[in-house]
Amino acid sequence: MALLSDRYGGDSGIGQHTSGLYNALSKLGLKIDVYSNVVQPEVIPKHVLVHRVGLSHKGEVFACFSSDFHMLLKGITRADILHTMAGFGWITTRTAKSLVPLVNTVHGRVRWTPHSSSMRAKLGGIVIRSLEERNLFSSRAVIAVSEHVRDYLAQQYGLVNKVKIVSNGIDENDFMRFVETSDHIPPNRNCILLSVTRLSKERKPWRLLFLTKELLKYLPNVQLVVIGKGPLLPLLSDMRESMHLGNHVLLLGSVNHNELPRYYSACSLYVATPTAGITVLEASAAGKAFVYFEDNLLLPSISCLESFSGGFAASDETDMARLVTKLLSDESRLRMLGRENQQHVRRKYLWSFLARQILDLYSVCLDQQYGLVRLD
């Protein structure tokens, strides 16, 4: 099979999703070629064949250089299954002629490409519009990473029968590292909150600073540690100073993924940004309860978020400050909630479990290809 994703490895949710899925499917015996725009060499096993297809990003459109495109086209046409992730909607037009069953994973809202000349990509003389939307309708099956994404696809595009929910997950080895680290590093008793997120506009990281300001009314010694990079880091640094939060907010920037278990284990509570994705699973694996902001514009990228007994939603900073204060006031309950979260991830969110659901979906798509069954 061929797996196409904008990113492979690294600290992004898409990159971790792709590498986690690859590793789990490989253990089930699948031979996989990975085509990716952004590749982190340090996370690639020696036996993995990764093709960099030379994409450039212009506005909302990913365009492929012609020399790499022909190599990519040759690779995918000999695959039995083509599985696409974010940023590869443009491939649909070419694969439609190859009769390769297409499976598309959707992590959130589908980007719409305006019909203006500045926002078009020309691939082999063909002008592609609404690229990711075309990918949805050409797919044999669509994987939604959460119930919220499924409902969005149904309401926005009328897609129901061919949508299956398979959550983002966590690699079993990563899970065990978080568990083992949490067993050796007790949580800091100084009310340390942790948030790991990309510092970009869509994640609204400034809300973390307003939350800290609100929390100081109840917890004068609270500290917030923010890990992540992004274009808003300078802005957040300025806001921290203007809000007089220099002693309460620590902006660490990028941290090596191997070091993350120590930070999760040392915190008292995890604060997730609206997408509530892979970091929620990492925090839970480390035995932590978490809180997150509800946001109608950003969809959670893991399924059954409400099923975590140690996960709590808040509508705004005032509401969350009260919630966090209440949770931190009962240390034994907080530990119990963290342990329950850890067991929940072990049962439902390991890639070794999720990959079998995707493998079953591939089988259905191949059977449908030869007219044996109908996907419903």
Account of the protein in words:
The chain is an alpha/beta fold and 376 residues long. It has two domains: 187 residues, 3-Layer(aba) Sandwich (Rossmann fold); 177 residues, Glycogen Phosphorylase B (Rossmann fold). It has 13 helices and 17 strands. Helix 6 packs across helix 9. The C terminus is likely disordered.
Short description:
By secondary structure, this protein is of the alpha/beta class. Helices cover 39% and strands 20% of the residues.
Q: What is the name of the CATH superfamily of the largest domain?
A: Glycogen Phosphorylase B
| Range of strand content | 15-25%
How many separate structural domains? 2
Text of the CATH class of the largest domain: Alpha Beta
Distance between the termini: 22 Å
Mean pLDDT: 79
- Taking all Cα atoms into account, the compactness measure Rg is 21 Å
- Summarize the helix and strand pattern as letters: EHEEEEHEHEEEHEHEHEHEHEHEHEEHHH
- Helix run count: 13
Large-scale geometry: elongated
Number of strands: 17
Strand order, largest beta sheet? 3-2-1-6-7-10-11
Structural class: alpha/beta
The assigned CATH architecture of the largest domain is 3-Layer(aba) Sandwich
Low-confidence parts lasting 5 or more residues at pLDDT below 50?
55-67, 112-129, 370-376
Q: Which percent bin holds the helix content?
A: 25-40%
Query: What is the oligomeric state here?
Result: single chain
CATH topology of the largest domain: Rossmann fold
Outline the biggest β-sheet: 7 strands, parallel
Mind sketching the topology for me?
Layout: E1 2-8, H1 13-27, E2 33-39, E3 49-52, E4 55-58, E5 61-64, H2 66-77, E6 82-84, H3 92-95, E7 102-106, E8 121-123, E9 126-128, H4 131-138, E10 141-144, H5 147-157, E11 163-165, H6 172-184, E12 192-196, H7 206-215, E13 223-227, H8 233-242, E14 249-253, H9 260-266, E15 269-272, H10 278-285, E16 290-293, E17 311-314, H11 317-328, H12 331-348, H13 351-369
Parallel strand pairs: 1-2, 1-6, 2-3, 6-7, 7-10, 10-11, 12-13, 12-15, 13-14, 15-16, 16-17
Antiparallel strand pairs: 4-5, 8-9
